[in-house]
Amino acid sequence: MEFVFAPPPVTSLAVRGMAARFPVRRVYCVGRNYAAHAIEMGFDPDREPPFFFQKNPDNLVPGGGDVPYPPLTQDLHHEIELVAALGEGGRDIPRDRALDHVFGYAVGIDLTRRDLQGVCKKMGRPWEVGKAFEHSAPCSEIVPAAEIGHPDAGDIHLDVNGARRQEGDLNQLIWKLPEVIEHLSGLFTLAAGDLIFTGTPAGVGPVVAGDTLTGSVAGVGGIAVRIV
Ligand code: MN
Could you tell me the CATH number of the domain that includes residue 67? Predict the structure, then answer.
């Protein structure tokens, strides 16, 4: 096939124990999926239906590393998250079959221009300027579910310059991953290569240039990012 210019490269993540990489198709994110975080953001966590937003695949920072402080914000926040990576897709996937579609898991940071997101919320506007900007989605290598199973409990935390900022447990997810996949696949046709950032525990806060962020999810791995 001939293109009028070179097509953009496929964004991909390393897979632990494999030479082949995981090609990313879409990046979905779940909003307010830990009660303590919903409360700190000023919302009632009582199982409102899950809601979703997206980042762009080329917003990923594969493996972490340096992240330039983004433009037009004074309030860049960290959100540590368990990321599910789909190896199969479909529509209307029932929760009891949902985990069969998961290839593996990673540790991601949903970086957020909180001030710009706040304006979007107040004005009833979409969230992209707060969420889907360059380098907004650092993500670790993927660990295959074939190796570690499907983590549904265990520590998730993030430190900034060695001080604990966020801490939670995967068992605190309001909407569990099978339910997330069920809802999401009712809204969209999912496919292999889709990532799902599953939400962040309490303790989100601002970072500045020079900060080092280290996060981890028990049984999955860790990620380190330096804001430059
Ligand atoms: Mn998030």
Answer: 3.90.850.10
